Amino acid sequence: VEAGNSAGETIGSLGEFGLIRALAARMPAGPATSLGIGDDSAVVGTPSGSVVAAVDMVIEGRHFRREWSSGTDVGVKAAARSLADIAAMGAKPTALLVALAAPGSLPAAWALELADGLAQEASRAGAGIVGGDTASAQFVVLSVTALGDLAGVSPVLRSGARSGDTVAVAGTLGRSAAGLALLTAGIGPTAGASLTAGAADLGPLVEAHLRPAPPYEAGPEAARLGATAMIDVSDGLLADLRHVAHASGVTIGISSGCLASFADDSLEKAARTLSSRTPSGSSSPLPWILAGGEDHALVATFPPSAELPAHWRVIGEVQAADAGSPGNVTVDGRSWNSESGWEHFR
Amino acid sequence: VEAGNSAGETIGSLGEFGLIRALAARMPAGPATSLGIGDDSAVVGTPSGSVVAAVDMVIEGRHFRREWSSGTDVGVKAAARSLADIAAMGAKPTALLVALAAPGSLPAAWALELADGLAQEASRAGAGIVGGDTASAQFVVLSVTALGDLAGVSPVLRSGARSGDTVAVAGTLGRSAAGLALLTAGIGPTAGASLTAGAADLGPLVEAHLRPAPPYEAGPEAARLGATAMIDVSDGLLADLRHVAHASGVTIGISSGCLASFADDSLEKAARTLSSRTPSGSSSPLPWILAGGEDHALVATFPPSAELPAHWRVIGEVQAADAGSPGNVTVDGRSWNSESGWEHFR
Lengths: 346, 346
Known about the structure:
Two copies of one chain form a homodimer.
Chain A: H1 11-14, H2 16-24, E1 33-35, E2 42-45, E3 50-59, H3 71-87, E4 92-102, H4 108-125, E5 128-136, E6 141-149, E7 166-170, H5 175-184, H6 203-210, H7 218-224, E8 229-232, H8 237-248, E9 250-254, H9 265-277, H10 286-291, E10 298-302, E11 313-320, E12 329-331, E13 334-335, H11 341-344
Parallel strand pairs in A: 4-5, 9-12
Antiparallel strand pairs in A: 1-2, 3-6, 4-6, 7-10, 7-11, 8-10, 9-11, 12-13
């Protein structure tokens, strides 16, 4: 089955085994794979003597809409979410297992695009796709398990941050949230259509929402640089740093000045464009940078002596825990919370 | 949150983090687990230098009904399906990762029972539960990834059966299918209710459908005994043997006489009971034994010299491939197919 000549064909008409064959043909084997798709289980090499594993779900209507996302977009996003969890341990992704439930009426071409998106992102991370399951459901549900290898480093946990450590980010912040805000405001594009005239330079933000691009190699790199704690930014920088602060028993202080480099021209323009349409909207991209999730940047803490390459941007410092307020995250010395936080930055 | 005092509470009222905490508290860590639930990923030991991995989905309305299955039943079944795939490679299960999507209105007690069922079956297999994800959906979707270790044996593939090999089964056949037929015929019980009077001795068949009990230890045992091919019976003995026959390029011949030991008194009684109600029903349990899936027995091929313990019941022999019909499975020398097969055995 080729995406190009399957007009009108659905996964129901392909049948379960036809679907599995068509999907499997598009999946990369991966260099660590001893036994891939086709038996009861896969076998994947773990030279370090342990396997790093995480699972993540993507559900139609909750995590994506088919009118906004192509099958490829959904495949990339589903793979990226799980692969980023492997990188956030300091590990190198090796393999994905994909469970897909979908209605029989799903166009076969969409399912093949989905496979292409999964394959594309797995390959970018150096991983194969080694197993899967398919089932019938009323809407699309994807569950992706990612496996990885530590390649000689110790796993970087959330609990290792120490007072005096440097906080740094690899990857982008706020771009996925800005892209979602643009889509929600109808600035588009819907799948396949163009952006509203005059907003073409905002396209990369929409793409960042539809197809996140976590910096996988920065994960093992951080481990080699001595990172004391690490997490991937899936819920938002402050929300995820709060997990690190809690697990480590520290306060994490962020400087808004250090976040300026994340606010490029397109983010500034998106904030201005949207605030002119919605009176309550912020004209600054800072709320997106602080609270927007799904870019899947990596944020890590490093000993002060660590020499960080430029793509690890320093954003703050780990401090001793506040008495009575363990796990606090501050911005310019002030506490931030999800209710009033947005107001502080307007 | 305790199952006993959460009347009226739903997973929506628990909230995502409350639900995760309540579920995680019920999960066994597992002896191979270096890092369990709570960070971006888990870390699980793989002393043999590779990991065996499989994923399987269980969906409400497709694989179970909440009026027939308790939360515990669904947890056991979901875990068993994936764990059996690990055993079918000859590997020892080490860990599960569980993705759960469910409606916010799901009773919290049901979700906790689900966790108990997953925990119970994982423990029976010697595995921990090391990671998960939760999401909101209109019905319950469970995706379970199982990991395992080969502990020094080579993986037993579907493709290694050779002419002259002995075919043998560990575990039960046909009991799950009989239990489903009883439930479908209204002989019950619905969840929590009793079986129809006079049918109490059929209860174990219903239980076999609701809570399959694969013989996990027989998987690594088969590998040590020199098994040349193995698969778990999830779609039905003949359907799954056909996968082995195809992958190995052989014919597999089953003897119906050898299957007699699978037809115990309860299976015979269930077949008689149901055939008296539905004129077209078979009065023999043989169709269930040959075509019923979901007991998750293990069926393996062994060199003729292998000395098999009694719990590996011999059912037939591997033969050279039929010319023009590779991958054939015969019963008493006759071809069987899913359309006419049932007729042959009535």
